[in-house]
Amino acid sequence: MAAVDLLKPTEPRDQKFSIHVVTWNVASAAPPLDLNDLLQLNNQNLNVDIYIIGLQEMNCGIRSLLYDTAFEDPWSSFFMDVLSPLSFIKVSCVRMQGLLLLVFAKHQHVPFIQILSTKSTPTGLFGYWGNKGGVNICLKLYGYYVSIINCHLPPHLANNDQRLEHFDRILEMQNFEEHDIPNILDHDLIFWFGDMNFRIEDFGLHFVRESIKNRCYGELWEKDQLSIAKKRDPLLREFQEGPLIFPPTYKFDRNSSNYDTSEKKRKPAWTDRILWRLKRQPQASLHTPSQPAPHFSLSLRSYISHMMYCISDHKPVTCTFDLEMKPLVSAPLITLIPEGLWTMENDMVISYSLAPDFLYSPWDWIGLYKVGLRHINDYMTYVWVGDNQVSSSDGLNQVYINISNIPETEDQFLLCYYSNNLHSVVGISKPFQSRSLELSA
């Protein structure tokens, strides 16, 4: 009996992931020299699996936009410079004028992240201008639906109703019918963050500044416009937020940690916020008892501002989460095996197997990368799987890839399989060295 039990397929074990979310209105500034504190790279107790980074008010002058269209924008490039040596790959990005949203993941998670949709929702100038609005990335993470929204809402104390209208409009525009994706409110997890521009009502400038100086935030929370709106709006109330135990993040004099000393002397406020929402579970009834939901829980580890950064009139805000779940997908769609073989024609043979439910396309391709790749187009060479095929039998396929231009090196390499139908990487090999393949041939 024990022998029979050993042959039963084992259920996927619960896995725990660390997700670090960043929001920062950078006020057209270039990246600072050091992002270690922002990304918590010096925190020995933190092992991040996924970074989600949202910026607002990036430089979006005509010259900058044209340059960023042809090349990587300076912020994306800097984040990749910092994170790629730590085995993070940029898996998706979306930009709308000054809004930028980036997602990085450690390479072992990439085959289990399927990018479903990226979207921009302008709300400036009656919905025709993208200086305000939201950008969204919708993805599947180990089989669960996750939506990520970075937004920039209208400014000024008196425009609270307009902010809430834009919040609703951005949410309404996240429809994915053409992609056969559930309504956003049926997604397992929503992250929503950005420069939401909510202000502190009633209290005067002197009272607010004295409260901040004395770290007495309680009364300020009660007059925070977002906190007030959540009490009135049932849907908004479903979005959770950590405690605001850090000073208001706006408005500061540039290159200092002093609140606004200009003639306008704007009242400090928590404009920069990070919210999240877990999917509502259906209520059980006597006639239709609810099925146990797959294990999926999110817990907040930290919610802080980073006062050391002074390039903008906003301070960045970060949240670190622990996501615990039972994966709905536990095996990659493609398993890649670099064969120990260099041919006389300077070709390398690659074997790969497909999951039974994988929909193959002749436009799928396999790329050869150095370990430390920045993004999926950072390949050294690639091959279309519809071409250069050596054999195909019993679910095992072989293709050859030309490596004549790849110099002999001690560097480690990776193979990635990109699915044209899924617009995502669906398989990554283990790291290997070119010399070790050559010696084993």
Largest sheet data: 6 strands, mixed
**Parts with pLDDT < 50 across at least 5 consecutive residues:** 1-9, 436-441
Radius of gyration: 24 Å
What distance separates the N and C termini? Answer: 45 Å
Structural class: alpha+beta
Shape: elongated
Strand content: 35-45%
Number of strands: 20
What integer is the average pLDDT? 88
Q: What count of helical segments does DSSP give?
A: 10
Give helix and strand order, one letter per element, not per position: HEHEHHEEEEEHEHHHHEEEEEEEEEEEEH
Q: Percent helix among the residues?
A: 10-25%
Write out the strand line-up for the largest beta sheet, numbering strands in chain order: 3-4-2-1-11-10
Helix-strand blueprint:
Layout: H1 2-7, E1 15-25, H2 36-39, E2 50-56, H3 62-70, H4 74-83, E3 88-96, E4 99-106, E5 113-124, E6 129-141, E7 144-152, H5 160-172, E8 189-195, H6 205-213, H7 218-222, H8 225-232, H9 234-237, E9 272-278, E10 296-305, E11 317-325, E12 334-342, E13 347-354, E14 365-370, E15 381-384, E16 389-393, E17 396-402, E18 412-419, E19 424-428, E20 432-433, H10 434-440
Parallel strand pairs: 1-2, 7-8
Antiparallel strand pairs: 1-11, 2-4, 3-4, 5-6, 6-7, 8-9, 10-11, 12-13, 13-17, 14-15, 14-18, 16-17, 18-19, 18-20
